[in-house]
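Quick one, tokens below:
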């Protein structure tokens, strides 16, 4: 990545934080809920979403578009839904790594989530981890030196990997470019999925104020297949 692109992205992230803070400041809680419902409704109408058995979603922070209504609906429909958890050990080593864990439709979201990295709600220990090719449940056990490690149990095959991925971001363009928070979590994870044969449909999910005219990108930046906001769906043709 050139220095100019890096500097532009840093500047845009700073500007977008101010924009989002102001956007949320001017909306009531009821208006925020209605807006989230409208965005979720647009996603439900997408054929790739309707046909997907596996949905990868996220738990929003205070400034992101809220896709939780979509998560709950997908679980009610019998779809498999998984949300991300940052690998804290990798983070301490300076590596951007996250994994997705399946939610249990028989339980509330509150029962299955806890505060994780960056103060964002993440899946609790004990939920089933999505591993491309297999899915395994992990449980804490004592290691040789009394440290806590995780043992995978109850391995089972994952269905044909054609997930519908709801992708958050700081900003998006109508032609599918995405600005993340700068750590590369989604770019790395999506690349890993594709290396294992998955063919994800990538849906940028955002508030109308997050649509911008231009985002500079390099070869590592993943493009979205569509971008959804309250103001419309932007379908991309590559």
């Amino acid at each position: 990545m050139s220095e100019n692109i890096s500097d532009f992205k840093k500047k845009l992230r700073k500007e977008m934080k101010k924009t989002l803070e102001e956007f949320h400041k001017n909306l009531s809680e009821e208006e925020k809920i209605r807006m989230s419902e409208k965005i979720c409704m647009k996603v439900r109408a997408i054929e790739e979403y309707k046909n997907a058995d596996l949905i990868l979603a996220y738990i929003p922070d205070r400034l992101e578009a809220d896709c939780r209504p979509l998560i709950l609906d997908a679980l009610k429909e019998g779809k498999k839904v998984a949300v991300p958890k940052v690998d804290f050990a990798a983070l301490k080593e300076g590596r951007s790594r996250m994994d997705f864990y399946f939610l249990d439709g028989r339980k509330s979201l509150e029962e299955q989530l806890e505060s994780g990295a960056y103060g964002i709600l993440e899946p609790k220990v004990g939920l089933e981890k999505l591993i491309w090719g297999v899915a395994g449940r992990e449980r804490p056990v004592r290691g040789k030196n009394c440290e806590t490690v995780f043992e995978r149990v109850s391995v089972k095959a994952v269905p044909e990997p054609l997930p519908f991925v709801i992708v958050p971001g700081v900003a998006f363009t109508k032609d599918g470019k995405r600005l993340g928070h700068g750590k590369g979590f989604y770019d790395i994870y999506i690349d890993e999925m594709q290396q294992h044969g998955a063919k994800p449909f990538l849906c940028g999910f955002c508030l109308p104020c997050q649509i911008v005219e231009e985002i500079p990108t390099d070869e590592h930046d993943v493009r979205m297949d569509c971008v959804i906001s309250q103001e419309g769906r932007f379908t991309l043709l590559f």
